[in-house]
Amino acid sequence: LRRVNTFKTLVYGGNMNGIVGYGKGDADNPDDALTRALLALKSNLVSINLDMINTFPRPIRAKFERYAITLYPRTEFNSWGSFLISHMIQLAGVHHCNFVVQNKQINNYSLVYCMMKLLTQNLTPRQLCEEYGYKLYDTAWLRYTDNRSALDVAK
């Protein structure tokens, strides 16, 4: 029948310290597809804003096609839910959050695009203070015992 078979590979990676990226590869055999995806990953790295004491100071929501992911600030990492998404968040270096995922159809490409869109929206507590005019002490979740941030209290 002479069908043309190609293999597609999607790779997501990070250094667990604020640098993440993804790559797509397409080739006639799986090894070449993986090699091309890794090369695309290395050329598509993005640095996200992180503060190691409070890696996620405010709630953020991102949506791409039928995926919607919301990250909420917490004092520790809560990985209850999707195993894949919790590892993607940890590879980004975010340690103080939990997440809620809403999807209508499982599509790994949409998941990666939505995760990249979400992670690039993150701000450090110092950047939040400069943007909203708060004191740096007010943005820390350590001040509140019920896991609320100062941005939630101020609203």
Describe this structure in words.
With 155 residues, the protein is of the alpha+beta class. The protein has 5 helices and 6 strands; from the N terminus they run E-E-H-E-E-E-H-E-H-H-H. It has helices spanning 30-43, 83-92, 108-119, 125-132, 150-154, and strands spanning 7-14, 19-27, 45-47, 60-64, 67-73, 97-103. A 3-stranded antiparallel beta sheet has the order 1-2-3. A 3-stranded antiparallel beta sheet has the order 4-5-6, covered by helices on one side. The chain starts with 6 loop residues before the first strand and ends with a helix. Residues 142-147 have low confidence and may be disordered.
How would you sum up this structure in a few lines?
The chain has five helices and six strands. With about 160 residues, the protein is of the alpha+beta class.
Count of helix runs: 5
Structural class: alpha+beta
> Topology as H/E string?
EEHEEEHEHHH
N- to C-terminal distance: 64 Å
Helix amount = 25-40%
**Main sheet characteristics:** 3 strands, antiparallel
% residues in beta strands: 25-35%
What is the tally of beta strands?
Answer: 6
Mean pLDDT: 84
> How much is the radius of gyration in Å?
18 Å
Report the principal-axis shape: elongated
Note poorly predicted spans. 142-147
Strand order of the largest sheet: 1-2-3
